[in-house]
Design a protein that fits this description.
The chain is α+β, with helices and mostly antiparallel strands. It is built from nine helices and seven strands. Helix 1 crosses helix 3. The C terminus is likely disordered.
């Protein structure tokens, strides 16, 4: 198994494994109450999410793919997971990731038109717009004080690949990037996935109820930054 950048041909597979993996997820079940009645609409909504994020300035989209080194190799590479990391901030490093080509602007504009058409034509019967807006409002203040950071905006692993280290590899990819730049990494998660992130060094900074589940905000600090903060704290501790 290896990690590589997402290609346009990966979109269908990424959407399919995401729809299956998040079918029982508490957040998606709340935001997409119509998915049981319209399962293909649910998959299409996640497909649009992948496409939109892939064209969002500052986003880096990666996938995990099988290869001949895997014990269950079937002879053809298969997408088994994916992650969306987004760079936030105003530094030169952040702006380098956020730089956008004319072609990307054009593609992003076309996706926005497609999204408007889907809503106008009633082609998305699963997503509750009010609940989605509420989720965004609830999450907005979580990292207001963290100006420079990489955020894990989305992580998925195919159900059949659970507990095989795929999710950890996708998380570590972004943490290595954050460490090289000396900035924190952030994310929001449900209680079910907390264990994975804690094992990678994330710590909880807030926990708030949204509907009938919890939104847990977590942050990871690069080692050099943690040492500096520890030394600063010790300098201010009374003797």
């Amino acid at each position: 198994m290896h990690i590589r950048p997402l290609q346009p041909t990966d979109f269908p597979a990424a959407a399919s494994i995401s729809a299956e993996a998040f079918w029982d997820d508490e957040q998606f079940s709340w935001r997409c109450p119509g998915k049981a009645q319209f399962p293909e609409h649910f998959r299409q909504s996640i497909l649009r999410l992948w496409k939109t994020r892939a064209r969002t300035p500052g986003c880096v989209v990666i996938i995990a793919e099988t290869d001949e080194r895997d014990p269950d190799w079937q002879g053809e590479p298969e997408v088994i997971g994916g992650a969306i990391w987004q760079r936030h901030g105003q530094s030169a490093a952040a702006k380098g990731w956020q730089r956008e080509s004319f072609g990307n602007k054009l593609e992003r504009g076309l996706l926005q038109i497609e999204d408007l058409y889907v809503r106008w034509a009633g082609l998305d019967r699963v997503t509750d717009a009010a609940r989605t807006a509420q989720w965004r409002r609830e999450c907005a203040p979580n990292f207001a004080g963290v100006r420079e950071h990489w955020k894990l905006a989305f992580l998925v692993v195919a159900r059949r690949e659970g507990r095989r280290g795929v999710g950890g590899r996708l998380v570590d990819w972004g943490l290595n990037l954050a460490a090289r730049e000396g900035v924190p990494a952030t994310l929001e998660t449900s209680r079910a996935a907390e264990g994975l992130y804690r094992s990678r060094g994330f710590r909880e900074i807030s926990r708030k109820p949204v509907a009938d589940f919890w939104c847990v905000a977590m942050v990871w600090e690069p080692a050099a930054r943690r040492v500096k903060e520890k030394e600063s704290k010790e300098d201010h501790d009374p003797v």
